[in-house]
Amino acid sequence: MVKTVRFALALLALASISYAEWVAIGPDGGNIVALALDPQQPATLYTLPYEYPDGPRVFKTTTGGESWTSVGLLPDYAVNVLLVDPHESNRLYGMTSTMLWRSTDAGASWANYSLPTYARDIAADPLVPGRLFVSGYSYTTYAVPAVMTSTDYGQSWSTTVLDPDTSYAYCVAFDPARSGTAYAGCAGGLAFKTTDGGANWDSACGGLSARTSVDAIAVNAGNPDIVLAAASDGLYRTTDAGGNWVKAGEMTTTFDVATTAADPALAYCLGYDTVPQLFVSTDSGATWAVQHGDLKLGKRGSLVTDPSQGDALYSPGATGVNKTTDRGAHWAAANAGIRVASVPTISASPWNRRAVYVEVADNGVFQSQCAGDTWTRCGDFLSCGAICGIGLAPGAGADVMWALEGSG
Question: What pLDDT, in 10s, does the model give residues 76-125?
């Protein structure tokens, strides 16, 4: 009987123990798949990490990336496009290939709407509230380039096929000065233009190579006749609103281009000469120079410019959000509070209880000398981008780290 009572008391004691919740301690950053800036409040940005399978948390900053907080959950991990409505700061859009998600409370909650065909890019009309264009393709027996139009903030859609030949519409961009004017860039050297809010689209591909794909379009805020197009065989520029395009710069491939209302003469481009590079133009895209900064670029990338500060821009990627305030000459991580990194390997120093080393997948190795309170990114040394073990040995003044990499 005594043993029974003691056992019952022990179970009761265990049941009363309050277990503390786990708290993320970093490192900050992780794989960021979408980033959007609020054009009405340029210090406010939203970002989505890749988080499978429950969907990404929505992170928000009101300090230009100095610190971020999680404000909601978008329950679809496939969302990889994010947009802030230019007329209503609390209205956000997220997009997959077949679905539009919409928030009216700054990312706290989301509703979804099916798209009538397959989507690639989205743009909101800066002059007409509620009007959205989505570029993509319609598919029956083969794919044809198409643009979907909504005039009610994404609740309903109409579809316009741009061309009957096989192709894809990769990007869409509005003219910031001329109401109803927008451009769509496609594969097969095709580009189209509307001047009536999407009711009709006309060919605007004079000068584009038939073998190129147009991946991004940017319209100059000071002179909307100047339009830039990032393409698979370089960068194109038109000075007559899409009438004729000519090559600009020496880039062999480009995959994003951006302008800024703060300084219409400035333009930025991500692309290749021989390796991924950031290119800068100070004459509205007529000429370009490589910016030899310290931005770590993969095979793709994207840029978000600040409409209030021409020298400031952001670039999301596998390492998190990076920011520059000097046209890309120097970059710094802007990840504080974004704790979504995937950590496959962790090692603690056996002789220093506060020293910890971790690998962050697709990013690099980080160390902390204060039990995770702060983290420092170690120098790059990986050839394949992944390690499966970290070993430590005592050294003179510093730990000696050994890393087992997938390729040896």
Answer: 999 999 999 999 999 999 999 999 999 999 999 999 999 999 999 999 99
The token duo for 290 is 């490589």
pLDDT digits (tens, 9 = 90+) for 210-228: 999 999 999 999 999 999 9
Rounded-to-integer distance, Cα 322 and Cα 315, Å: 5
Q: Report the C-alpha gap between 387 and 55 in whole angstroms.
A: 26
Quote the distance between the C-alpha of residue 183 and its chain's center: 21
As given in the structure block, the two tokens for residue 373 are: 């309170």
Burial status of residue 289 (CB atoms within 10 A of its CB: 0-12, 13-18, 19 or more):
exposed
Distance CA 317, CA 311 (A): 20
- Output the six-digit token pair for 238: 């038109």
Domains of the chain in start order, with CATH, are 32-333 (2.130.10.10), 345-405 (no CATH)
Element (H, E) at 11: helix 2-16
Pairing of strands 45-49, 253-259: unpaired
Name the pairing type of β-strands 69-73 and 81-84.
unpaired
Burial (Cβ within 10 Å: 0-12, 13-18, ≥19) of residue 282: middle
**Which residue shows structure tokens 């301690």?**
25
How many other C-beta atoms are found inside a 10 Å radius of the C-beta of residue 196? 10
For residue range 264-291, list pLDDT tens digits in order.
999 999 998 778 899 999 999 999 999 9
List the structure tokens of 389.
Answer: 């073990």
| Strands (E) located in 140-252 | 143-150, 158-161, 169-174, 182-186, 191-194, 202-203, 214-219, 227-231, 234-238, 246-248
